[in-house]
Structure formats: structure tokens, C-alpha cells
Amino acid sequence: MDREGEKLHRDQFGDTFKWGVTTAAFQVEGSCNADGKGPSIWDTFTARKGRIKDGHHAGTACDFYNCYQQDVALVRRLNIPNFRFSLSWPRLLPSGTGQANRKGIDFYNKLIDSCLENDITPWVTLYHWDLPQALEQKGGWTNRDIVSWFSEYTHLCARTYGDRVKNWIVLNEPMVFTGAGYFLGLHAPGRTGLKNFFAAVHHAVLCMGEGGRILRSEVPDAEIGTTFSCSHIDPWSSKPRDIKAAVRADALLNRLLIEPVLGLGYPVNDVPVLKGLRKHFKEGDEEKMKFDFDFIGLQNYTREVVRYSLLTPYIHAKLVKAEHRNVPLTTMKWEVYPAAIYHILKKFEAYPQIKKIYITENGAAFPDTMKDGKVDDPQRLQFIRDNIAQVLKAREEGCRVDGYFIWTLTDNFEWAEGYHPRFGLIYVDYATQKRTIKSSGKWYARFLLGQNRVAEVL
Ligand code: BGC
């Protein structure tokens, strides 16, 4: 145990600090065809051969649709005061627009009420990657009409749940769903190429602005944010060409989606190919892209090391895989590097336009096993504790970070990786849907009780 880990306690963060846990609809709910839900791009993608490791799909996932009361009770049992989850757009609007699905609306009413009855604050993400398939048929994120489709959906959610939900997140990690989904083809809908990517990026930025404005007008007392994936980036060497490659990778991975929202435009000076985004601009877009969010959600898991590469098109930079760097790895083959979250906080802290930062996701997958009815996961426990210590360090240096949410509550469907990576504080036996709190979950529960309180034995 490191020294920082040993002396860590909740009270060091003060009373305003938000502690939480995050999930996402498609990764946990299952019941993909139940009660009038329409298909999403992820239902379609998981049904395509060879897209998901070992042919896994999310037909049942963690059966959260039926087990939500049990899982909310577990959030409470772990003493977690804030629960972030996403709404499934195709469960609410099966065709993406038009007729709403009563049973879908009721499901989230029950989930939100269950949180409130348990003294848990719900944090709702509007979009965590499960676009209605009907909209993908019309071009999905590449069609500018998505701004009006998304607006209709946002109005519906805000009017239906805004009386009880006061913490809203517009998009989850737009860089990932545009990059992996529309450029690399590794995620749904499996499209590739710069043309699709640029269109999807620009429309995602417009939706962040529009979504923020709609939420503000519909739920004036809400706290509104949106989230970004971000990895600290180090150059492979001190050679100028590696340093410049790292700057380009940083612009693409960490700055591309947030800077236009902050009113800074796209980082075209560092990555000239991004000039191609102009093609999708209409008059007034610069203004529409901006929104004065109450908070920015940062989601960090690791760092990346970047070197110059002549052969990589557009940015002449490539990631040096962690597995080739002789460093500790998670199941995702991501480097265990807790200082990354500190560097990321310092980096985003430097934007004066950001009012407040919450870490809306942080966590790690390790190969957990059940032994004598228990799951001991010392690596995850250490990872979480070390990351929290780094957040504290940044906060003590004056950083405007005021929240930390762990990814994730239960093991769940990890997109293209299927069920192999286990990220949960709670172990799921997928054959029986039995939940078992891991030692990391027990640690978080004790930590959240605060300094001088005695933990209930879980
Ligand atoms: C996403 C989650 C995902 C997690 C781990 C984030 O990029 O928001 O949906 O499961 O990272 O990969």
C-alpha cells in the first residue's frame, strides 16, 4: 500500500464533493426487444458476425431492466450517494422520433423514483451510444437532421423527468462514438472513413450545444454537463518529431470535441486535416456549437505514449501500445498509470471557460474470480485508491474538480470486448445474474462512510 493510499479519507475532499458510480443503458439493461423498445445500432452491430469478441451480445446483459431495484439497493448498500446512468433513446422513442413508448417512459420513472426513495441522486446521461437504428438508416450521426432528432428526444426526457432529475449529462464521450463508430468501424454502426467521421463530429458538437440549451430552458434549476474521454499523452522520446506527434494526438483525442463547445473552435492549427470539418458548417454554427456548461465531465482510464509515424495517414503519429512498453496492464491492455488523472485534471483546469470538473468515469478491468463465494480484487482496489489520491492532489493544488464517479457498478457488456473485461465493484455471474460485492466495492463503501464512522460489515 502506498503512503498516499494509506492516509486517504473522504473528509479530505470536503462536503460539496460528489461521490458516485456510473453505468450505461446498453451495457446493463438487456431486454432489448421488451415492452416496445425499438432496435438500437448496438443491437444491429452485435448481431453482425465477427464484430464482438466470441459473438457475445447484450440481449440480457445484467438484466438491469428487471433487476434495477436490487441494483439501486446495492448502490445504497455501498453508501454511494450519486448514481449516473443513461437513458436508452430507442426504449423511449422506438423510431427515434415521433410516438413515445409508454412502457419505456415508465421504466425510467420507476428507476428514478427508486433512486430518490433510497436517498440516491440520479445523474442522467441522455446519450451513451445506443442510437435508434431507424435513425442510422437515415444516416445517423452523419445526417445534420440529427440535431433536430436529438432536440426532440432531449425535450421529451427533460419534460418527463426534469421534475425529479436535476443533474444532466448531454453526451457520453463523443470522441469515442464518432471515432470508433464512424471512422474506425470498431463500434456501432461500424462505419469508416474521414467523411463519415467529420460529419459525425460536427453534428455531435452541435447536439452538445443544443442539448445544453434545451435542458437549461426546460429544467432551469438543473446542473448541466457533458462528458469527454481523455488520456494523458506523453511523447515516446524527447526528439522534436515525437513531441510534435504527441501534440497532434492530443489535439485529436483530447481537444477536438471540447474546444468548439468552449468557444475555441476546432484545433485546426495543430491538425490541419481537420479543416475538412468546415465543409459541414452552416452559417451561425460557431455560436451554436458553444454552450456554457455548469460542469465538464472528464473520463480517464490511462495514459498514451505517442511517437512520430510517417505511415499513419493524416496525423503522422501513432500510439505505442502499452503491451510493448513493459508496464503494468489491465485486462483491456491499458497501462496502469494513476498519475494520468492528475495530469488530465491539470490540463483541463487550464481552460478558464470550464467552471467545474467532475470525473464522471474512472476504473479498471482485471481478471476477477470467485473463490469460496468471495471476489478479492486487490488490483482494482489499489487502482481506485491511487486514482482518488491523484484527484485529491490536484484538488489540494486548487483544481476545480468536485466529483468522482467510478466506472462501474456491476460487471457488464464491454462493447466490442463482450463480457470478458470485468470493470464492476460488484461481480456478476451471468448464468444466474447473482451479484457479489468485490473487495473493491467493500473498500469504496467504507471509504464513503467518512473518517470516524464504523463500516457496516458487508
Ligand atoms: C465508456 C464506457 C466503457 C468504459 C470502459 C468509457 O469509454 O463510457 O461505456 O465501458 O469506458 O471501456
Automatic annotation (TrEMBL):
Keywords tagged on the record: Carbohydrate metabolism, Cellulose degradation, Glycosidase, Hydrolase, Polysaccharide degradation
One Pfam assignment: Glyco_hydro_1
EC number of this enzyme: 3.2.1.21
Any one GO BP annotation for this protein: cellulose catabolic process
Record bears the keyword DNA damage: no
Entry GO MF terms: beta-glucosidase activity
Regions annotated as coiled coil: none
GO CC annotations, alphabetized: cytosol
Catalytic activity: Hydrolysis of terminal, non-reducing beta-D-glucosyl residues with release of beta-D-glucose
Keyword Hydrolase annotated: yes
Catalytic site: 173, 361
Residues annotated to bind substrate: 27, 128, 172, 301, 407, 414-415
Family listed: Belongs to the glycosyl hydrolase 1 family.
Protein name: Beta-glucosidase
Organism: Pararcticibacter amylolyticus
Taxonomy of the source species: Bacteria, Pseudomonadati, Bacteroidota, Sphingobacteriia, Sphingobacteriales
